[in-house]
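All the exercises in this workshop are built on plain-text protein records. Sequence and backbone structure share a record, each on its own labelled line. The question running through the whole workshop is how a given chain folds. The record below serves as our worked example for the rest of this section.
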Amino acid sequence: AEDDGEACKRLCKPQSCCFAEHAMFNCREEQEDLCKEFDPCKTLYTSQTSVAETGQKEEVSSAAQPKIEPKAEVVEACDTNFATMADKCHTLCEDAKCCFTNDVAQSCQGMKSFCGEYAPCKHIYNETT
């Protein structure tokens, strides 16, 4: 995709709870029909999601799950130069606040690759949550 999957992430974000690994954040049972509509989104999530659906654990080699690197501009604004770029950090992290919330309805913590790109944002959200 020409937008590096951003459109897909935006479309999938509202139902990311369907794929959350932690039971507290997972809404698949409560919203089964809606989650089925969002099944194409599961490619954004870890392969562990399919365990609950198939009852079988998929074998995944470590090579198949590359380390998710944070976006360079997020690292620069939120880690390296936070003292001088705090405003930019807050702006960049706005889309990723769902990665750091404890509110099940707002959480997108199941989106491992998306949240991994914004990992440095934890500094600003740990201050307020």
